[in-house]
From TrEMBL:
Record-level Gene Ontology MF annotations: aldehyde dehydrogenase (NAD+) activity
EC numbers, comma separated: 1.2.1.3
Signal peptide: none
Lineage: Bacteria, Pseudomonadati, Pseudomonadota, Alphaproteobacteria, Hyphomicrobiales
Catalytic residues identified in the record: E266
Top-level taxonomic group: Bacteria
Subunit structure: Homotetramer.
Family: Belongs to the aldehyde dehydrogenase family.
Keywords recorded for this protein, A-Z: NAD, Oxidoreductase
Pfam families to which the protein is assigned, alphabetical: Aldedh
Residue intervals of the Aldehyde dehydrogenase domain: 29-491
Protein name: aldehyde dehydrogenase (NAD(+))
The keyword Oxidoreductase is assigned to this record: yes
């Protein structure tokens, strides 16, 4: 089937109606959504007004006041049901992700699997929201810490993982006793409506089974930047978890800080890999190809910089260039294609601008050209680009959300490590080596300065069990696994006196 004959609007309508989304929520509105696969419109959504958003946040706060009283393991039961509903909807929602974002089929399904995985994690967590008991210096006293629900949690998500990012935040936030208010990317609101409908199904089952849940536990606000601003400025939102560009983080972070609200920022990455002399080059080739070309370079964990030791440069780089030349680019819905389209024309323009700037710095560009424009004039498919750079300069230090891999030569490990860390961003990183000293050094205190540092796998494709996030301009937030749940709760330190005297700490005397 050619791109020109695909009727995605009809398919989207069928999927949404199957999932229980009412047609009036995505027809006749003002926000036009296009599938990057064809560049054609697939929905027109009604947008929330600023006043409507503020009212919805008040309602979410009211929901929080009730939900925080439900015991955590019971809250976990709701997320268990959400996991079940997501399993049932996996094919449909995965397909919708592919259509709305342009991800290849296995990645669309993988994104839903990530949602299911975090639900499983959160169910277990609902019985493990532990605090410490702490030794006290006073006799007949006990000191402990308790973790309490925080409030209505704001979630701002990006187009590239339109539903998984919501689930990392929402599954944890809800078992932690919070409500959630979600502003999805205006490029991908249909998957948000679908996810909300799936959540409502889980909620209906929870209530039918005798569970107590308030209305407005999960809210979706469709709209643009003004709606995001309402979320960021509203005093009933104690935490906003925001995923997007560093520019977005710079706008959001200080506004939250000015009212002492928390932020969990998941911003730009400029992820690198070092290929050492002892690297297994077959494995390296596969790892680099997936990380750099997968999702058309539109993951925040995508591989963007490659440092190759000069002893293996001439072996690896031509093989890599060949893989770039032969990779299958086209409709992500067709089996066999590995690279789908860029999200829109703006992304394409930014990619071309970066390639231009790289050339000006002496970079040798292979690939990067537009393909399939004859079949779909409004869709932006590109051949992934390899750029051999004489130095780490110009656009190499920026995050360009497109499949551009800058390749550079190095001769000493310390030099590679220094170059690796010499960018403003700090999300993900990796080294391909069989030298134990190099591997251990890379993950040590003097190694990679990123939130994620891998050995013999690429920087992208993290599992949900680990904390996900990065340092420097990446924003410092951690979401998903490990103890990321703590940011969605407030900690109280409690001292209880079960004696009949009142000893003061630090030996202070105050006898009246
Ligand atoms: C993102 O691109 O915003 O590690 C998240 C990965 C995925 C998540 C990416 N699990 O690549």
């Amino acid at each position: 089937m050619t791109l020109a004959t695909l009727d995605l609007a009809a398919e989207v309508k069928a999927i949404l109606s199957d999932l229980g989304v009412k047609a009036e929520s995505y027809t006749g509105g003002t926000l036009a959504v296009r599938s990057p696969i064809t560049g054609l419109e697939i929905g027109k959504l009604r947008e929330e007004t600023a006043a409507g958003a503020a009212k919805a946040i008040d309602a979410a706060h009211a929901a929080f006041l009730e939900w925080r009283l439900v015991p955590a393991p019971k809250r976990g039961e709701l997320i268990r049901l959400l996991g079940e509903e997501l399993r049932a909807a996996k094919t449909a929602l995965g397909r919708l992700v592919s259509i709305e974002v342009g991800k290849v089929t296995s990645e669309g399904l993988g994104e839903v699997q990530e949602m299911i995985d975090i639900c499983d994690f959160a169910v277990g967590l609902s019985r493990q929201l532990y605090g410490l008991t702490i030794a006290t210096e006073r006799s007949e006293h006990r000191m402990m810490e308790t973790w309490h629900p925080l409030g209505a949690i704001g979630i701002i998500s990006a187009f590239n993982f339109p539903v998984a990012v919501w689930s990392w935040n929402a599954a944890l936030a809800i078992v932690c006793g919070n409500s959630t208010v979600w502003k999805p990317s205006e490029k991908t609101p249909l998957t948000a409506l679908a996810t909300q409908a799936i959540f409502e199904k889980a909620l209906a089952r929870f209530v039918a089974d005798g569970g107590k849940a308030p209305k407005n536990l999960s809210t979706v606000l469709i709209g643009g930047r003004d709606i995001g601003e309402v979320l960021v400025d509203h005093d009933k939102i104690p935490l906003v978890s925001a995923t997007g560009s560093t520019a977005m983080g710079r706008a959001v972070g200080p506004r939250l800080a000015s009212r002492f609200a928390r932020s969990l920022l998941e911003l730009g990455g400029n992820n690198a890999a070092i290929v050492a002399p002892t690297a297994d080059l077959d494995l390296t080739l596969r790892g680099v190809a997936f990380s750099a070309m997968g999702t058309a370079g539109q993951r925040c964990t995508s591989l963007r910089r490659l440092f190759v030791h000069d002893s293996v440069y001439e072996t690896l780089v031509p093989r890599l260039a060949k893989a770039y030349q032969s990779v299958t680019i086209g409709s992500p819905l067709e089996n066999g294609n590995l690279v789908g389209p860029l999200i829109d024309k703006a992304a394409y323009d930014k990619m071309q601008k970066a390639l231009e700037a790289a050339r000006a710095e002496g970079g040798k560009v292979t690939g990067g050209e537009r393909v399939h424009q004859d079949e779909a004039a409004d869709a932006y498919y590109v051949r992934p680009a390899i750029v051999e750079m004489p130095a780490q300069s110009g656009p190499v230090k920026d995050e360009t959300f497109a499949p551009i891999l800058y390749v550079m030569k190095y001769s000493s490990f310390d030099e590679a490590l220094a170059l690796h860390n010499d960018v403003p961003q700090g999300l993900s990183s990796s080294i391909f080596t069989n030298d134990m000293r190099e591997a251990e050094t890379f993950v040590s205190a003097r190694g990679s300065d990123c939130g994620i540092a891998n050995v013999n796998i690429g920087p992208s494709g993290a599992e949900i069990g680990g904390a996900f996030g990065g340092e420097k301009e990446t924003g410092g937030g951690r979401e998903s696994g490990s103890d990321a749940w703590r940011v969605y709760m407030r900690r109280a330190t409690n001292t209880l006196n079960y004696g009949r005297t009142l000893p003061l700490a630090q030996g202070v005397k105050f006898d009246i």
